[in-house]
Amino acid sequence: MRVLGIDPGLTRCGIGVVDVSSTRTPVLVHVSVITTSPDLPLEERLLLVARGIEAVLDEHRPDSVAVERVFAQHNVRTVMGTAQVSGVALLAAARRSLPVGLHTPSEVKAAITGYGQADKKQVGAMVAKVLRLAAVPKPADAADALALAICHAWRVPLGSAVTGATSGSTRPRASVDPSQLTPAQLAWRAAEQGAVAARPAHKLAR
């Protein structure tokens, strides 16, 4: 399954394409950021973003598209630009009869890190880990787009135990069935367990 993730933004629009196998192992196909100048008229900026998205759609031919769901922010101007770019992305996908998934930032964070309140640094680190990249994709918009694509491919109904584990905790609780976790959540658990095992015994005893 090939998924195009779009982190909508008028100045920077993150683009990420991943292939995800039947074992849910993601592989990087493409990552980039479409940029537009604030000095340009709004309609020209939207046209540049539309052309960039359409070029990626035509070159990489994804099976589906994942877009970050727009939500209210204090900065109305920012959310308006985000909403306008989201509309451009949805239109481009609809023209190609591609299914679209809308995901909130907390849903993406939970799928990628196992924690719905993870910061951008944690998300970027886990994106690099699951895609086996030598470095975190830059800027953050690029990593966010890849996270969206991975989240969309991995998105499955989670049991109440998993849902509870991703609220207010950076790791799954012991009662969570490992078979219900995404590969990234398993990687997060393994990384934290490895960090605990590496600590000196006198520190663990505190």
Automatic annotation (TrEMBL):
Keywords: Cytoplasm, DNA damage, DNA recombination, DNA repair, DNA-binding, Endonuclease, Hydrolase, Magnesium, Metal-binding, Nuclease. It is found in: Cytoplasm. SUPFAM superfamilies: Ribonuclease H-like. Mg(2+) 2 binds at residue 68. Its main location: cytoplasm. The active site is at residues 7, 68, 141. It comes from the Bacteria. It catalyses: Endonucleolytic cleavage at a junction such as a reciprocal single-stranded crossover between two homologous DNA duplexes (Holliday junction). PANTHER family: CROSSOVER JUNCTION ENDODEOXYRIBONUCLEASE RUVC (PTHR30194). Homodimer which binds Holliday junction (HJ) DNA. The HJ becomes 2-fold symmetrical on binding to RuvC with unstacked arms; it has a different conformation from HJ DNA in complex with RuvA. In the full resolvosome a probable DNA-RuvA(4)-RuvB(12)-RuvC(2) complex forms which resolves the HJ. This is Crossover junction endodeoxyribonuclease RuvC. It comes from Herbiconiux daphne. The lineage of its organism: Bacteria, Bacillati, Actinomycetota, Actinomycetes, Micrococcales. The gene is ruvC.
